[in-house]
Amino acid sequence: MVCERCGGTGFVTREDGRVDLCECRFSQENVNVVLGIPKRFWDKDLDNYIPETEDEQNAFFQAKAFVETFGEEEGESITFWGPPGVGKTHLAVGILKRVYKEKGVRGFFFDTKDLIYKLKLLIEERRTGRTLKRILDLPLIVLDDLGSERLSDWQREIISYIISYRYNNLKSTIVTTNFPLEEGRGSRSRLSERIDPGTVSRIYEMGKVVYIKGKDRRKAGGLKLWHERDR
Ligand SMILES: Nc1ncnc2c1ncn2[C@@H]1O[C@H](COP(=O)(O)OP(=O)(O)O)[C@@H](O)[C@H]1O
Ligand SMILES: [Mg+2]
């Protein structure tokens, strides 16, 4: 199931020490393709998540604990929230890959905006039924960047439907979001302003909610590249 050459990482180290893309990237064995992981995150997993701050260490610990205790029938979920660039998607991808490798459970990654868009196309073609059912019944899904867009009523409804179905049927969901789930976290806009408040409380009940403050790694990376270019 998982590629024997690269262990599902998509990379192999050649004899001369250089790192190459594994052949499985181009075949059905590619774990990234199987799990629907976006190309930008193909080389990300829990092994190359480096926690620096206390929040990041806690998030990393929670991610590993989630994998260890994961059971297909238990419906345990986890939510990572915090500002952009602190590694929420990285952790979600890492969990998805490790659950696949260690537990043999095949989940799927969804960028929430993209999922809603695709469901809209399916609705227009009147083909929602089977696809939606398959999504609903997957043992583990990632809903990445939940609330990143202001949603229309039907979009809110479909998100609420997906989350409550999964909640009721003990299916696990990994949520990432930039928005706090609760009141009193500064003046920031809350997730409940973006999706149905009932759905937010369901997310709370499904599992752990992990806050990551950290620093924006995208900005840090950008600065480094800029610096390197100067030299
Ligand atoms: N602790 C970390 N260790 C290694 N890479 C990290 C870490 N946190 C973030 N990154 C990297 O920084 C970039 C932004 O992280 P990402 O997961 O997209 O952030 P978020 O989803 O929180 O906006 C990605 O390339 C990610 O791999
Ligand atoms: Mg993200």
Ligand names: adenosine-5'-diphosphate, magnesium ion
- CATH fold-level name of the largest domain: Rossmann fold
The tally of domains stands at 2
Rg, Cα atoms, Å: 18 Å
The secondary-structure element order is EEHHEHEHHEHEHEH
Overall average residue pLDDT = 86
Notes on the protein architecture:
The structure is a single chain. The chain has 231 residues and is of the alpha/beta class. The chain has eight helices and seven strands; from the N terminus they run ββααβαβααβαβαβα. It has a five-stranded parallel β-sheet with strand order 4-5-6-3-7, sandwiched between helices. It is globular. The C terminus is likely disordered. The site of adenosine-5'-diphosphate has 15 residues, from helix 3 and helix 8.
What's this model, at a glance?
The protein has about 230 residues and is α/β, with parallel strands linked by helices. Helix content is about 45%, strand content about 15%. The strands form two sheets. The protein has a five-stranded parallel β-sheet, with helices on both faces.
Annotation keywords:
single chain; 231 residues; alpha/beta; Rossmann fold; two-stranded antiparallel sheet; disordered C terminus; binds adenosine-5'-diphosphate; binds magnesium ion
